[in-house]
Structure formats: C-alpha cells, structure tokens
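Journal club side-thread
Mid-discussion, someone asked how the predicted structure for our own chain would compare to the paper's figures. Pasting it here so we can look after the session.
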Amino acid sequence: MMRAATTLALMLACSVALADLPDHRPVPGGVAVVDLGPAGSNRPDATFQDRPVAVREHDGRWKAVVGIGLDATPGEASVRSGGDAFAFEITDRDYAEQRITLDDDEQVSPGEETLKRIRREQEEIHAARDTFSDGTPETMALTLPAEGRFSSPFGLRRYFNDQPRNPHSGLDIANETGTPIAAPLGGEVVETGDYFFNGKTVFVDHGNGFVTMYCHLDEIQVSTGDRVARGDTLGTIGATGRVTGPHLHWTVYLNGQAVDPLLFVEGEDESYNEANGQDG
C-alpha cells in the first residue's frame, strides 16, 4: 500500500512534465499517433472509422491522435485526411481476467424496468462520451485525478457472478469515501448524472474529442457548463452505482473510444504493474 501511494504521489508531481502527446501504442484500448505531414497554417481535419479524431501540431508536424477501441481487430487500419489515407498497424494485446461476485442480482441481470432506465441513461452517457468540440487541449498530458490504490487496471475481461460482461473501460483508484477528485487537465464539464451502473458521474471535455469520465462519486461538486482548470475539485470518491467498495472509476475517451488512462500519465502502465507487483 505504502509503495503504491508513493508511486502515485510521484506520478502526480511529475506527470505534468509528460510529453505533449502519448506514445504511439496501436493496440486495442491504445492510441495511434499518425503523422499527417508538415504543419501549415491551417490544422487539417482527420477521421478514423468515419469519426473525427484529434489533430495536434508536434515538432513541426501534424499528428492525428487516434483512440483504438477495446473491440478493435488487429490488422491494418488508416486515418483519412484531405482525401489521403495514412496507414498504421493495430497489434494485439492480451488483457487479464477478473471475476467479481455481487450479492444484488439486479446489478448483474437487471429487470425490465431497470433496463428501461439503463437505456435512457446510455443515450446521455454516449452523447457526453462522443463530444467533439473545436477547442484544442493545451496538452494531452494528464495528472492522476485522485490519490489511492490502483485496484483494477484498464482492459480487464470481466465476469460478474460468472457472467461475461464488457471489458473494464477505465482505471479504478480505491480510497476512502470523501477523498477529493481533481481535474487532470483543464476543460468544460459537459454532463453530470446519477446512473444505475456508474453512480454519480462527471464528464469533462478537454477539446478535440478528448473527454474524461469520473464514476461512483459520493458528491459531485461541479455543474454542467462549468469551466475547470487542472487541479480543480470535481467531487469526491464514493461507492454509488455498481461497486464492491469506494473507489473512482476513471475513463479517458479519444474519438469516443475508451483508452488506457495511464498512456497519458508519467510512467504509463509499467508504473501500475510495478506498484502492484503484477507482471502483466
């Protein structure tokens, strides 16, 4: 626990020095950084699978920064910009398995009335997730939003009461209820809500399809439309929604795809594995 907390403190202090762009990690749940050519006066538009993607100037070049979904099939892929295709290769990545036992069967196999609620909520959640505003984030380097123990890594293949469910789309940070959650980068709060699975939740748009989500909060301390700066309090860790204990579920979205949050934080996933004694 102490080693993990020390690693987290170091990452919080150092991650602002992370390079402007994440590393090129073209795997399911990863990020592809694709060169589009020399930077000119006008930033080009680019798409991946018919969705707009972030484009940033870096070292005098335009770079498309593409989120790759956890369900992506390894193989050749391409970004389209200005009528041209810019190819890259998606390689495979194996994720570990996690089995969770819940006492409340409704949390595993919801009834019809609950399913109606979930469908309504999904529309709101997907709209926030898919936000693509014109603003360009000052950087793509993130600080960790909360102190605590990394309890569940991104990408786990999950089973609830032995029933397969969607892979884990974020990083879980466990700590006591009431622990502050801070914005890892400036942006605008585009949605808040209290959802069946996610509990009390905040979405922050950082611009250009770069969106972060914070779930299972005890208290939400911002409102839709608020502008936040790096370090501003968004709320506190809690145990709302489908949980087994108090923690923050933190998701990073690029072009609507959940990607590994630690690709944007100093130390990447190697620091998580080292802090938790894992080897993969």
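Post-session note: The two ends are 19 Å apart (CA to CA).
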